[in-house]
Amino acid sequence: MRSIRMVSIFFVVLLFLPREGVACERCLSTLSLEETISQADEIAVAERDPDENIAEPDPNATELDMSKLPEFIHLKILKVLKGEPLPPVVRVQSYSGMCRYGIYFRKGVTALVFLKRTPDFYTSVAGGCSKTSIPLGGNTLNLDGKKITLQTFTEKYLAPSPPKDQTP
């Protein structure tokens, strides 16, 4: 009987020992821009649908209200740079509970988005362990501190490679 009591006390003590808890699965690695582009089904210039009526976190709050993180947002597609033509507005996964595995940016922002297609909606490449979006300022992207135009981005990253010489 005493040994059962000791084992029980041991397990109760284990319950109260401090442990590190991780609410969201962390990325073991993050895809490079080139890998993200390669794995994206569609790449588009999009803005948050201005007619969308979902709760938004307060930008002035000192703490993030997790109840206001939308599971999905709607993006108005302005231009498709890679992939199949898209409908004018697409449904995109944003958060899963409090975990940001998808694409999220505020209304009024235009961004280059990297989309992965699912049967019912779009989501980010590699579950968010990649570039998810790059905000556009006018016609300019900020890539790791370097400003380039959307046209330069398209020519550098999305232009088809010239055919390789097949002569022996």
Describe the fold and architecture.
By secondary structure, the chain is α+β, with helices and mostly antiparallel strands. The chain has one domain (28-54, 65-158): OB fold (Dihydrolipoamide Acetyltransferase, E2P), CATH 2.40.50. Helix content is 18%, strand content 27%. It is globular and about 75 Å long.
Concise overview:
This protein has 168 residues and is of the alpha+beta class.
Keywords summarizing the entry:
alpha+beta, OB fold (Dihydrolipoamide Acetyltransferase, E2P), 18% helix, 168 residues
Please specify the SSE layout and strand pairing.
Layout: H1 2-16, H2 33-39, E1 42-48, E2 72-82, E3 89-93, E4 110-117, E5 122-123, E6 133-137, E7 140-143, E8 146-149, H3 150-158
Q: Please tell me the total number of domains.
A: 1
Helix content: 10-25%
The chain-level mean pLDDT equals 79
CATH architecture: Beta Barrel
The number of helical runs is: 3
Label the overall shape.
Answer: globular
CATH class: Mainly Beta
- Based on secondary structure, the structural category is alpha+beta
